[in-house]
Write a structure and sequence with these properties.
Blueprint lengths: L2 H5 L5 H13 L7 H9 L5 H19 L19
Helix pairs in contact: 2-3, 3-4
Keywords: Nucleus, Transcription, Transcription regulation
Protein name: Transcription factor RADIALIS
Main location: nucleus
C-alpha cells in the first residue's frame, strides 16, 4: 500500500479534489501557501496537514516514476472485444 493510501484515511475524496485545486491556485511561490491551501480545503485542516499531505503525494509520485509501484492490470470494459 502506498504511503498516501495508508495515511490518506484522514482525507476524503472531496477534500482531495479541493486540495488539488488549491495546489493549482497557490503555487510554490505563494506566501503562506500551506495556510491558504488548508483554508481552501477547510474541514479543520491545518497548514501542517496540507504540507504533510503534499509531501506524501510527492513521495508517491516519485515512487511511481522510479518504477517502485506496479501499474494495475485493468481489463478494458465496453470496448467491444471479448476476453481471449
Amino acid at each position: 500500500m502506498s504511503s498516501s493510501s495508508s495515511s490518506g484515511s484522514g482525507w476524503s475524496k472531496s477534500q482531495n479534489k479541493l486540495f488539488e485545486k488549491a495546489l493549482a491556485v497557490y503555487d510554490q511561490d505563494t506566501p503562506d501557501r500551506w495556510q491558504k491551501v488548508a483554508r481552501y480545503v477547510g474541514d479543520g485542516k491545518s497548514a501542517d496537514d496540507a504540507k504533510r499531505h503534499y509531501e506524501l503525494l510527492v513521495d508517491d509520485v516519485q515512487r511511481i516514476e522510479s518504477g517502485l509501484v506496479r501499474y494495475p492490470n485493468y481489463r478494458s470494459s465496453g470496448s467491444g472485444q471479448q476476453n481471449r
